[in-house]
Design a protein that fits this description.
By secondary structure, this protein is of the alpha+beta class. It has a domain at about 285-470: Butyryl-CoA Dehydrogenase, subunit A, domain 3. It has helices at about 5-10, 35-45, 50-55, 75-95, 100-110, 115-120, 125-140, 275-280, 285-315, 325-350, 360-385, 405-415, 420-435, 440-450, 455-465, 465-480, and strands at about 20, 25, 60, 65-70, 145, 170-175, 180-185, 195-200, 215-220, 225-230, 255-265, 270, 350-355, 355-360. A hairpin with a 3-residue loop joins strand 6 (about 170-175) and strand 7 (about 180-185). It is globular and about 75 Å long.
């Protein structure tokens, strides 16, 4: 099925426990901290059903049901292109600012189906469980977030943990014939406030002594014992859409998710008591690559917005004719074009990890991921430099126009040739919300760490590099000539 936006909003009124500080939020769809973002997620569900989008955003499954294209298992490059365009449209509708949109975790789960034996060898029945869960998500158009990281300080001991430090990270504390019991907390539940379920797992390495933490399972967010602890919601403090257009409706929110005696039946458990496997499932299948391909595509749409702001800033400040400014804009344009080429290369050089199915090229994807995480802050700093001090020259907010006398003075002193004071303020507020506000600060940190620490991202490229090919080139060159015999060396000085 293709869920409507209204159906998704209704699904969020399910008795879940969401906390902002000590406040228990009774309805995230109406609360001033979340209601506009909730509408943005509903918009995604509605727009993908529109006649001009549905041919791309949906496909017919083997049962004859129409399902969202982020559940499509690609068998050809055309299927990969369909998936890319699906991700691109979602990102376009949200300006690339919602990183964990419904197509993200769905792509992870879809990618896991390539090797069911990987699961069955660990836990009897888990391969069938995974297939059934994929079917459930696909047929119900389920929106899942994921909580796949332990809290800082509770990670693999030899890499992170200090002696004597204990942190209540999520683990299995009991099991019986019905299922398992979970206790502890996991991060980072981006979009958890707006999701139906959370996929619980591990994307960072675990030590063998952490086997109890190595569970992979799916948990509805309204189950007894589950609570969502949101960070500061930026939407709540946005004065108006005019003054903070992105925080107003695109704050997907990040949350810690706490599990207290949460019972999970075996049919929702996919790995158990295997520290290495709980992470490896994402890399021995196309899962991690498919999920982060979506991140690559989303980043490009966000970069288009950033480059557009840069160009308009130069026009607004009447500096477009300056060679140094054109050089800066040219570099930004080249970066966006290069990113598009890297994403296209993932499809052109697609891989076959399982017979009959194609996956994006993992090496190209990880190279793109590394570029995105390393360059976002530089890109933003470049555009902030073009904006100059303009954002600080504006009145506190647009309420200034409510007073006729102040409005007249505002138009007199803040207008510039070709642009009214209100138009100028609107643009600068938009630019600052993306590049300098609290909302922007969250995005700086998010784009740096959404795929893990920098050394983890670099390790992905290390692991996927064909080193034999690289060193083989060196070996062939070395084999092409020998040590010169005595008397064969030419001494230039003597000549």
């Amino acid at each position: 099925m293709l869920k409507t936006g209204q159906q998704h909003l209704e699904s969020l009124r399910d008795g879940r426990k969401v906390y902002i500080g000590d406040e228990l939020v009774e309805d995230v769809t109406t609360h001033p901290a979340f209601r506009n973002a909730a509408q943005s997620f509903a918009m995604i569900y509605d727009r993908k059903r529109d006649p001009e989008n549905v041919d791309v955003m949906a496909f017919e499954d083997d049962d004859g049901e129409i399902c969202s294209s982020w559940y499509l298992r690609p068998k050809s490059r055309d299927d990969l292109r369909k998936r890319r365009e699906t991700h691109r449209r979602v990102a376009d509708w949200t300006c690339g600012l919602i990183g964990r949109s419904p197509d993200h975790v769905a792509s992870f789960v879809t990618g896991l189906l390539w090797d069911p034996d990987l699961f069955e060898d660990n836990l009897k029945g888990s391969a069938a469980n995974l297939k059934a869960y994929y079917d459930y998500m696909r047929k119900n158009d389920t929106f899942a977030c994921y909580t796949v990281l332990p809290p800082q300080g509770a990670r693999q001991p030899e890499l992170y943990q200090r002696e004597g430090l204990t942190v209540p990270t999520l683990r299995v504390t009991a099991e019986d014939k019905e299922g398992i019991t979970l206790n502890g907390m996991k991060m980072l539940g981006t979009s958890a406030v707006f999701s139906n379920e959370t996929w619980v797992g591990n994307l960072l390495p675990l030590g063998e002594e952490q086997a109890a933490e190595s569970v992979t399972c799916a948990v509805p967010l309204n189950w007894a014992g589950v609570s969502i602890w949101a960070r500061k919601p930026f939407e709540r403090f946005a004065v108006s859409e005019f003054d903070a257009p992105f925080a107003w409706k695109f704050d997907e929110t990040d949350s810690m998710v706490i599990f207290e005696d949460v019972k999970v039946p075996w049919e929702r458990v996919f790995t158990h008591n295997n520290a290495a496997l709980s992470r490896n499932i994402y890399f021995e299948t196309p899962s991690h690559a498919m999920g982060n391909h979506q991140s690559n595509v989303r980043f490009q749409e966000k970069l288009k917005l950033i480059v557009g702001i840069a160009r308009k800033s130069a026009e607004l400040n009447n500096v477009l004719q300056i060679p140094a400014v054109r050089d800066t804009l040219g570099r930004l344009a080249a970066a966006e074009a290069g990113l598009g080429a890297m994403i296209a290369g993932q499809i052109e050089d697609a891989e076959e990890m399982a017979p009959g199915y194609l996956n994006v090229n993992r090496r190209h994807m990880y190279g793109t991921l590394h570029w995105c995480t390393q360059n976002y802050a530089i890109l933003c700093e470049t555009v902030r430099e073009l904006m100059g001090g303009g954002p600080f020259q504006m009145p506190a907010d647009i309420s200034v126009i409510n007073n006729p006398e102040l409005k007249k003075k505002f138009e007199t002193y803040w207008s510039v040739p070709g642009q009214s004071a209100i138009e100028r303020m609107k643009f600068l507020k938009l630019g600052w919300d993306l590049l300098g506000s609290d909302f922007a600060g969250r995005h700086q940190q998010y784009e740096r760490f959404y795929a893990g620490p920098a050394f983890i991202n670099t390790l992905y490229s290390f692991m996927n590099c064909p080193w034999d090919e690289m060193t083989g080139t060196v070996d062939r060159v070395l084999a092409g000539y020998d040590v010169p015999a005595a008397g064969e060396m030419r001494h230039m000085a003597a000549e």
